[in-house]
Design brief:
heterodimer; A: mainly alpha; 2 domains; B: mainly alpha; two-stranded antiparallel sheet
Chain lengths: 345, 291
């Protein structure tokens, strides 16, 4: 590989370019350095103006972290645990069922009639209005009734020769990915209302493990399906064909051959999903209030609660950031092996 | 080769069901709510107002202000991200010394929680105790109103967006650059084309499809901006930096004005769709020419 695009440059301008990249790296690194340093400062080290170098400018202390651990500034330990539990389980579930769907879209043929999709939407909407307005069900009950009815009718209708275009695998993939385009506030707010309605039926979803995880799984699926499809497409089909000649069932081909072969891809997808869930703010803001609060909410709250206590704010931010720093290191290793290149074509 | 095997349904249905239940269904719910006048506090029984909520919103200056703010942030931030990101990607691809070291550093910002990044930004932009203030004081620019003046605050938010998301552009562009064929450049070299000519004649046109995709993704994502603004300025001063999502949050979660908020989120959805479709329509002729 040669240096495309820069080969015609003189030595002098090459140095200029290197300087530019270095400048960008410094801009990237400085805020990170700043938060790490500030987290070890004592109050006088902050209020007396900016200080930069530990042991020279100020005496580092572990007090901010001890405060955090002891829960002086909110239940940090539990929130950290919440974030970890929800993050790991949502990422694991999303990667598992997303990979299955991606595999199905790569290797099997699907045909969905446009008419059936339309029937689903109209029945769900109409059924909901009918049950709610005319038959006296509550809004949540009406939704929960209309949904399965519309689904069953639409699946049955898909077998009939309806007029209109037939959608294939590409369209299903597009449908998955387009979910990512929706402004999350649309769903977050509606989901909050829906969850509280269901809560009134006696099934607590707001501020619960199930509710939060379910929502994160749904919102990670588009990325998972998109990424995993590329990994699966890169697997040579001959291996699977050989297994099929021996009459190995499809689920064993998937678990025994395809999954082990794309382990790196699964791992990368899992980590990207985990990062997404770990950092997510809007849904957590709407769907949790105390027990299942996640780290971003607590970190955001630090600001308004205690004003300019930067040492504590930095320590809090650092706790939220460090796991992702470790992951960045791991991911960049995978990147070097060209792993993620396929994902963007 | 496509197989056909009933087991395919077992593979695809879990994902489809979850997405249907969690994202399509609330959509229907809020779509119907958007035609109601419906408040939780004070509790008023829902009343059908048809397009009333939409009409009120379209006459609301705060709504247009939020649209303008969001659009400004998205377009300026993404534009600069693209220029800086492409530049750095070109440099890294050209094997600038020390390129390996940069990679982890470059990947980092986009993996960090925007909330945490915004908190750090607040410290750096602090007008009296922040390091940026000290740096600028050396040039005689002390105590600038970084987050307390509307224009400055908008600039600071854009700066944070650029800091956090340029790495994404770098990553994508770098991957794209590595797929470009070598021989075209060798031919250009024989013709004595300058680096500048090579860029505009070869690199830029060949990178156009991936550029379009990257800018599209970033633009759509930028329109959703909320957490950064929430922590850095809370939409203030006044409503100078209030974005669409933040506006919806204030209306929905502070005032519990359900019908109004649902209408707002649907207008948001329509706006995003219009922007997306226009963008793709504008770019299509350029993209197809290259195929």
């Amino acid at each position: 590989m040669s240096g495309q695009g820069l080969t015609g440059l003189s030595n002098w301008s090459r140095r200029l370019v290197a300087l530019g990249v270095l400048a960008w790296c410094l801009i990237t690194a400085f805020p990170l350095y700043w938060v790490v340093v500030t987290a070890f400062k004592t109050p006088p080290g902050v209020v007396g103006g900016p200080t930069y170098i530990p042991f020279v400018d100020f005496t580092p202390t572990l007090q901010p972290f001890i405060d955090l651990y002891q829960g002086i500034r909110g239940e940090f330990f539990r929130t950290f645990l919440n974030s970890t539990i929800v993050g790991l389980s949502a990422a694991a579930i999303a990667t598992a069922i997303g990979a299955m769907a991606a595999y199905a879209l790569v290797r099997f043929e699907f045909k969905v009639r446009f008419g059936a999709g339309l029937i689903f939407f109209l029945l769900a909407l109409g059924g909901y209005l009918l049950f709610n307005n005319n038959l006296g069900f509550t809004r949540a009950q009406a939704l929960l009734l209309a949904f399965p009815i519309a689904l069953v009718v639409a699946i049955a209708a898909n077998r009939l020769p309806l007029p209109g275009p037939i959608l294939g695998n590409e369209d299903i993939l597009f449908w998955f990915v387009s979910q990512r385009m929706f402004p999350p506030i649309v769903t977050a707010f509606a989901l909050y209302l829906l969850y509280s309605e269901i809560g009134r039926l006696g099934f607590q979803l707001i501020d619960s493990y199930v509710g939060l995880t379910l929502c994160y799984v749904a919102f990670s699926l588009p990325i998972v399906v998109w990424l995993m499809r590329d990994f699966f497409e890169a697997i040579p089909i001959e291996v699977e064909e050989a297994a099929m000649v021996d009459n190995v069932p499809s689920w064993r081909i998937f678990l025994g051959i395809v999954v082990p072969m794309s382990m790196n891809g699964l791992l990368a997808t899992f980590m990207i999903t985990l990062a997404f869930v770990w950092n997510e703010f809007l849904f957590a803001l709407f769907l949790t209030n105390s027990k299942w609060q996640t780290l971003p909410i607590l970190v955001a709250g630090q600001n308004s609660q205690r004003g300019d206590e930067w040492w504590a704010i930095s320590a809090a931010a650092l706790v939220a950031i460090i796991p992702m720093m470790i992951m960045a290191g791991l991911l960049s290793r995978m990147m070097r092996s060209g792993l993620l290149l396929g994902a963007i074509k | 080769m496509m197989r056909n095997d009933p087991i395919k349904h077992v593979f695809i249905w879990p994902a489809v069901l979850v997405v249907l239940a969690i994202s399509i269904f609330p959509l229907i719910y809020s779509f119907t709510t958007s035609f109601l006048s419906y408040r939780l506090i004070p509790p008023i029984p829902p009343r059908v107002v048809w397009l009333g909520n939409y009409a009120t919103l379209l006459q609301e200056p705060r709504f247009w202000n939020a649209i303008l703010t969001t659009t400004l942030i998205a377009f300026i931030a993404v534009g600069l991200q693209y220029v800086i990101g492409f530049g750095v990607a070109l440099a890294l691809n050209a094997r600038v010394p020390g390129e390996r070291l940069f990679r982890v550093a470059l990947l980092l910002p986009m993996l960090l929680a925007p909330v945490a990044v915004a908190l750090v930004a607040r410290m750096i932009f602090n007008p009296t105790m922040g390091p940026l203030n000290q740096f600028l004081s050396m040039f005689g620019l002390a105590n600038l109103p970084f987050l307390t003046n509307g224009h400055w605050a908008l600039g600071c938010i854009i700066a944070v967006e650029i800091w956090q998301w340029t790495p994404f552009v770098i990553l994508m562009m770098l991957a794209g650059l590595q797929t470009l064929p070598e021989d075209v450049y060798e031919a250009a070299e024989l013709e004595n084309a300058s680096a500048w000519q090579q860029f505009w004649g070869i690199t830029f046109p060949m990178m156009l499809p991936i550029s379009a995709a990257v800018v599209f993704i970033r633009l759509i994502e930028s329109y959703k901006i909320m957490d950064t603004v929430f922590v850095m300025t809370g939409g203030g001063p006044g409503v100078d930096t209030e974005t669409l999502t933040l506006f919806a949050y204030q209306e929905g979660f502070k005032k519990f004005n359900l019908g109004y908020t649902s209408a707002l989120s649907f207008l948001f959805l329509i706006a995003i769709t219009i922007i997306g479709v226009t963008y793709l329509a504008l770019l299509r002729p350029h993209l197809e020419k290259r195929r």
